[in-house]
């Protein structure tokens, strides 16, 4: 028994890695089709054909097509949080919030498949996920505000979670406008910069400007 015990974790790890690779393969095939045809117009059979897997394999990883939207949202949230890991602490609240906004901009601008953001955001809203998902992005913003409060840089009476929700809502609104093309040449970063410039004076006594455009927030 003792001679066999080291083998079991290796086998389990290999199975899990294979499972993750298959799930990623299906997910990637689905996103490419969504970008080409749209979410509603794409059928599960087309996804399995693109991924070169059996139909049953798809349902081993996703209960239904809509679950791909949840996976897309979760992946973006994880990328957002990963981008902020290890970022240096900064005494300037505007820089700390600017880093959050910059990370969100990068997630959207790094999308390799043209039009995918708009397709998936539309499906995300239709699925009701903005209401049912935990407000993880708002919590990230709120934690920045809590840090500022602990250091005495926030005005008394400010509710960190309320500010976090306001910033999340403002970000989503800007993202929707960006996907529609309403921001023209100004871009998502400029729109989020204006949001910070507008909000910061209401929560801090001194909010020196930072810029998402010149890299100060990176």
Structure description:
There is one protein chain. With 218 residues, the protein is mainly α. The protein has 10 helices and no strands. α1 crosses α6 and α4 (67-84) crosses α5. The radius of gyration is 21 Å and the shape is elongated.
List keywords for this structure.
218 residues, mainly alpha, 10 helices, 0% strand, disordered N terminus, disordered C terminus
- Give average pLDDT, whole number: 87
Order of helices and strands: HHHHHHHHHH
The structure class reads mainly alpha
End-to-end C-alpha gap: 53 Å
How would a textbook summarize the main sheet? none
Shape: elongated
Number of helices: 10
In terms of DSSP E residues, the strand content is under 5%
Radius of gyration: 21 Å
In short:
The protein has 10 helices and no strands. With about 220 residues, the protein is mainly α. Residues about 1-10, about 205-210 and about 215-218 have low confidence and may be disordered.
Topology:
Elements: H1 7-37, H2 44-51, H3 55-61, H4 67-84, H5 93-109, H6 116-126, H7 129-132, H8 136-150, H9 160-180, H10 187-203
Helix pairs in contact: 1-2, 1-6, 4-5, 5-8, 5-10, 8-9, 9-10
């Amino acid at each position: 028994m003792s001679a066999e015990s080291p083998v079991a974790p290796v086998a389990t790890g290999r199975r899990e890695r294979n499972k993750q690779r298959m799930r990623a393969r299906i997910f990637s095939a689905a996103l490419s089709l969504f970008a080409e045809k749209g979410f509603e117009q794409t059928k599960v059979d087309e996804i399995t054909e693109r991924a070169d897997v059996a139909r049953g394999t798809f349902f081993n990883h996703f209960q239904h097509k809509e679950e791909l939207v949840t996976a897309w949202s979760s992946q973006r949230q994880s990328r957002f949080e990963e981008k902020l890991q290890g970022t240096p602490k900064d005494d300037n609240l505007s820089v700390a919030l600017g880093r959050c906004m910059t990370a969100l901009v990068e997630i959207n601008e790094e999308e390799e498949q043209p039009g995918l953001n708009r397709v998936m955001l539309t499906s995300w809203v239709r699925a009701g996920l903005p209401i049912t998902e935990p407000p993880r992005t708002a919590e990230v913003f709120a934690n920045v505000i809590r840090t500022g409060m602990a250091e005495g840089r926030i005005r008394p009476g400010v509710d960190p979670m309320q500010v976090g929700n306001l910033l999340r809502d403002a970000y989503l609104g800007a993202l929707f406008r960006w996907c529609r093309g309403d921001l023209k040449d100004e871009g998502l970063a400029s729109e989020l910069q204006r949001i910070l410039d507008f909000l910061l004076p209401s929560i801090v006594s001194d909010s020196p400007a930072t810029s998402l455009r010149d890299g100060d927030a990176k």
